[in-house]
């Protein structure tokens, strides 16, 4: 059964990145943002063309996650108040959630997968807040996308993934280690490669690639450290599931670098719990009004 | 200073509340509501000053333990957490604290 297939990270993403591509609107949005003569109105118009996305962005912007006291009713207001790049990051998170559909249920329950991702995104954003980072949405989006490599693998090599899932459940091993043993790479690297192909900025792509191995990245060590610990929190709280059944091992060096007091952890957990439901309903486009 | 866990709706701020970057979230004189508490949490505000501080001065967060957690539920939750954290060092301060929080949280939810 030990067939050594010719698999590489690049091979995993080469056609997946085109078959499962980001919606056209995302590249239009990026172009408009990068164009020096774009006005806020131009940018808002592009987003507003997608009504579903608009509704979800407004709902997020009005959830306690943002803590704005004024109600944000239009995309123009959102772009003005939250900022262009922040809105783009949110649009990215929401767009990716629609890209991967139709993966067999025996491999992954998509709802559980995104719930784990959302919990990680929230924990990541909250940790970044406590670390006085700026542009918090990139932390949120990195959390939402951190396991997207698994989805690529489920699409590309479903049999091998199923084998790995079953093997880990039987032997009680960590899935990300088993991936590396069998394939020579793990889902974090695959995710990072996909995001680079999609032209997602390295400030998001690199931390996704290093969230299980901090030695691999040196450009964004703070982002990587925050994401690593956020993933651990989401696992510990048992919110959702992306395939891994245990809490991944804490990288003690990463913890040292973060300089977070253990006394902050109860607050962090409470914050994740208290904002989780509203964020899920905003991202999944539930019908209840954003309050 | 009053820890946010000890605030109750209706208290009045005696000083502006700012987030860590110094942006004002709520001015002095504002009356607090539940919604404000979640906003404070979001922005990492741990304590605020309220008028007539006849309240708990201590910024120590009260443990969210309900007084009577069934010891059986607690033991079950602890066993589950030990299984979940098998790849982590239970003596590491962050892991130790996280296991404690998650054990209580799980037992509370099962109750």
Unreliable residue runs of chain B: 54-62
Question: What is the H/E string of chain B?
Answer: EEEHEHH
What best-fitting shape of chain B do the alpha-carbon axes yield?
Answer: elongated
How can the largest sheet of chain A be summarized? none
**Cα-atom radius of gyration of chain B:** 18 Å
Number of helices of chain B: 3
How much of the sequence lies in strands of chain B comes to 5-15%
Number of helices, where a helix is a run of at least 4 consecutive DSSP H or I residues of chain A:
17
Which pair has the most extensive contact? A-B, 37 and 34 residues
Output mean pLDDT of chain B. Answer: 81
Distance between the termini of chain B: 33 Å
Strand content of chain A is under 5%
Return the structural class of chain A: mainly alpha
**Major sheet size, sense and barrel closure of chain B:** 2 strands, antiparallel
Tell me which oligomeric state these chains represent: heterodimer
Q: What's the total number of strands of chain B?
A: 4
In N-to-C order, the SSE pattern of chain A is HHHHHHHHHHHHHHHHH
Which overall shape of chain A is indicated by the principal axes computed on the Cα atoms? globular
How far is the first residue's CA from the last residue's CA of chain A? Answer: 54 Å
The total beta strand count of chain A reads: 0
Pfam families (chain A): HDOD
Organism (chain A): Geomonas oryzisoli
Domain HDOD (chain A): 19-214
Protein name (chain A): HDOD domain-containing protein
